[in-house]
Amino acid sequence: MSKESKPAQKRIDRFFSGPGGRADDWRDLVEAAKIWARVGNRAAYDAALAELSVTEEFHGYPGLNLMAALREAAAAGDGPTSFALATKIAQALATRSFRQHAGDWNAKDEGNGDVPELVPPSFGAHTARRPYFETLIVTGVPSSQWPALAAEWRKLRRPVDGFIYEPVIVGSLEDAFCATMLNPDIAAVIINEGFGLRSRHDAPVLRSIMATAALNDESDASALRLAQIIKKVRPELDLYMISNRDVEELAGNPDASVVRRIFYSVEELLELHLSMLEGIQDRYDTPFFDNLKKYAQRPIGTFHALPIARGKSIFKSDWIRDMGEFYGPNLFLAESSATTGGLDSMLEPTGNIKKAQEKAARALGADRVFFVTNGTSTSNKMAVQALLAPGDIAIVDRNCHKSHHYGMVLAGAQPLYVEAFPMTEYSMYGAVPLKTIKQALLSAKADGRLDRVKMVDLTNCTFDGHIYNTRRVMEECLAIKPDLIFLWDEAWFGFARFSPFLRRRTAMGAANEIEAWMHDPKSVAAYDRQQAELGKNPTDEVLLKTRLIPDPRQIRLRVYQTNSTHKSMSAIRQGSMLSVKDVEFHTVEQQFKEAVFTHASTSPNQQLIASLDISRRQMELEGYGLVANAIEIAFAIRHAVNNNPLISKYFRVLGADAMVPAQYRQSGFTDYLAAGVNWANTLKSLDEDEFCLDPTRMTLVCGTAGYDGTQFKGILASEYNIQVNKTSRNSVLVQSNINNTRSDVAHLIRVLAEIAGEIDRGLAQGGANARKTFEARVTSLMKDVPDLPNFSHFHPSFRGDAGAKTNEGDIRTGFYTAYDVAGCEHIRLNDPEIDRRLKAGPELVSANFVIPYPPGFPIMVPGQVITQETIDFMRKLDVKEIHGYDAKEGLKLVRTEALAKIGRPKPAAAPKLKAAS
């Protein structure tokens, strides 16, 4: 987000300034205190303390007492004490030691010394530590009584409690909302009646965000309204209400379902305390991991086919003992091929795996979740196999992950490929425009084949960060075919569930919004009104231009979402989850079981299953803060690269305006770093625009530095120990995640500055020839880029009974044609025969998938007719890794004679003889 000038009164609604921004504020305070203590100038300190005091009201630590001590020391003119106390608090926040050390909560030093705790608390620990959280208490009690109220809550703490919490007290709905947004440590909320509506602080962005909630006067500040608002932005939180009115009536109100429990007055404060701890325990429990830990501690004799279990073959060996020393004993003690004795079966879960999956469904907003231990490639194939049958048509993004294409082969379904918008300058594709998807559906309808179109299969977000308006896509498609199935591959986007800003753009987030809309009486009126405007027989042109509203009475909501949990959460590699929200799931449940039997290993890795369980726990309890930090890290990288005078000469991170064409940014949003941008106009973009850009995915252009993507990726890895993932012809993809820190940012920026400096010196010392060579290289990478090839069409032999207006094909037959060695031929890419046949025929038909990395999607699929643009693209490719293509052999093509046999009608079956009378 843009760095706004600081107003006289601190704004409380700068939600983009996350944990790192808070730490910066405390470091600024310490620096100002140091200057005051040494030089005697206290004006900067007073200003910094006044500004910091505003948002610190929303945090449990340093709390009311320590903040009061800071203000008292300043009022007394005591610079040294102010410096010492500010330093102590800043160190406690940086190391998080306040969560366990009672001395950090006292204004006076309790003998911990001047050396801060630098190592994470779990390192070297031998005593059990209680996880720490904070509880937001919304009350109408005057602020003068808050210290006493906090003291009463602290009296409830008991040594036997599994967790420890600190109260955060606010007195208005707006402050409650801001505390929920700004404080990631809040894990439970207690809402009393009698609080006010408005904050006494400045919050213009907040009020523009909340305008849709229709909060106009104090009477709108009801406990139930606040509960619904908080649950929408942070659904993982446990909410408790205390009411002095008819709690029985309130408890029976369907709107109160967002509340975990309702209490009458304050008659059972201990019961409320215990209920909060129970709620945290419910999220903390990891059914499979907990049982696996118990299993590992039992003395078990293993007489099954897993010699590594219990680790005896490792630790008793003179030759592989180092493996045991490296991994430690618990890894082997927890290994087993058994599904009894406290464990469970991945194929038919009935125990703790089943419970773990149910908790994951709650966390992800799904009806059910399947754990998958061999990657989202398998999750995708499972979904495709279970939901599609031979002959079914699926609208598929041609640039999707190869697992979707192979899934179509396995299912015998016919893909109807649709194209994403091209970003030729950067040799990448964006996402598929909604108009293209609607046109495919309308064409199928015109051909009388809409009943065969069963699924829309799209990638959200794309590798490069393009995010669909998932709700709009599903609603408009359901307006054309109300029982469509949607499969959203969100391999890279699992974390978005835990961001209140990005959640609306996830499959499950949008599905839940659509479900709520369907039950709103206004939805039928909106549909009827549009139908009256459209008339009886609207043309396709009109339908393509109209934002279609589906009939809520006809919708059969069927949404599937796959997540690579290991890509954005703390799961071991290959950990994946498949989320389901399907009103018709009972009709395909048996097919899903068969798909699980087909693809899932009968020997799943126990540690991997446990990591899926653990990753759910972490995201439910601290995912909000971790994702906020990942977004903040991304903003820091974008700002540092694009605003550094040296680095920006040769590198830049592309903004949303460069990644998403203007016609798909209807709100006018340009970029997260643009002047004047805040979460209010960002939310407008997230709600309205056809495509948005995931802020955590940064396309770093390196072609302007004279490096192609593959080359620059290699330099970063081999010379600077920096790993990145995807590359294009002239860029690399930098991705922030929940694992990153500000130190990582500093390392990256330092490396880019060093490389930019070397380029600068080389050009300065090399003279005109060096500059000419450099400019030629940059031109080659940034200007002389190959056009991106679109999918052409399937050869008629693989079209079968395809419609006249649609372009689906029998990819399965095309795939297995390659198994016929005699029916295939190879022609080298630069052989003149290629050019001759492109002009004069016969057509070149691919016998297999050809997938260059980059860009990482099939530019040829089995049965596809190869065109001049595809050949031109391949000839210009300078990448080493091309799956499905052997440079020595050449392109694998289906021979013309073999194509004729495929297309030839099958002989009619011999007529059956009638039985003699």
UniProtKB/TrEMBL annotation:
Needed cofactors: pyridoxal 5'-phosphate
The entry's keywords: Aminotransferase, Transferase
Keyword Iron: no
Domain Orn/Lys/Arg decarboxylases family 1 pyridoxal-P attachment site: 286-516, 558-735
Coiled-coil region: none
Pfam family for this entry, one: OKR_DC_1
GO terms, molecular function: transaminase activity
Transmembrane helix found in the keyword field: no
InterPro entries tied to this protein: LL-DAP_aminotransferase, Orn/Lys/Arg_deCO2ase_major_dom, Prn/Lys/Arg_de-COase_C_sf, PyrdxlP-dep_Trfase, PyrdxlP-dep_Trfase_major
CDD domains associated with the record: Orn_deC_like (cd00615)
Name of protein: Decarboxylase
Lineage of the organism: Bacteria, Pseudomonadati, Pseudomonadota, Alphaproteobacteria, Hyphomicrobiales
